[in-house]
Design a protein that fits this description.
alpha+beta; globular; single chain; six-stranded mixed β-sheet; 9 strands; M1 Pyruvate Kinase, Domain 3
């Protein structure tokens, strides 16, 4: 994983170049909603790093977007804008054994309850570092 200043987002696919948009991710064959974009709160990563014996970088979480100051759990079932894209929060994104296997022991437990949000794209656009996340009114 590497940081990008901006990335094009395509509804029904994901972020251009992402392993799941290209169907090369480890779990790409799985079907279902919430597989286009993943978000994680910077605060959750910081809290994980406060646990004894565990450190994880934001890029190691394998999430597409790192947020700050946003309650991601509140976005489940809601539409929201990031840049000029529109997404819908589908479900939480708990840390898994696969992530821990790629990083180090203790990461899964450290991120428990703060693994992030899975979302789908409703509108194409571009996501940029620093874009505000704005919840949209109305049904998802």
């Amino acid at each position: 994983m590497e940081s990008q200043a901006e990335r094009r987002a395509v509804a029904g696919s994901g972020l251009v170049g992402d392993r799941y948009a290209t169907k090369t991710g480890a779990f790409s064959e799985r079907e279902g909603a919430g597989r286009e974009v993943t978000l994680i709160a910077r605060e959750a990563v910081a809290a994980a790093n406060e646990r004894p014996g565990v450190t994880i970088g934001e890029e190691e979480t394998r999430r597409n977007l790192v947020t700050e100051g946003v309650d991601l759990g509140r976005l489940i079932g809601k539409r929201f804008k990031v840049g000029d894209t529109v997404m819908v929060g589908v479900r939480d994104c708990p840390p898994c054994g696969y992530l821990e296997g790629l990083t180090r022991p203790g990461v899964r437990a450290a991120l428990e309850g703060g693994g992030g949000l899975r979302a789908d794209l409703l509108q194409d656009g571009t996501v940029r570092v620093g874009d505000e996340i704005v919840e949209l009114p109305g049904p998802a």
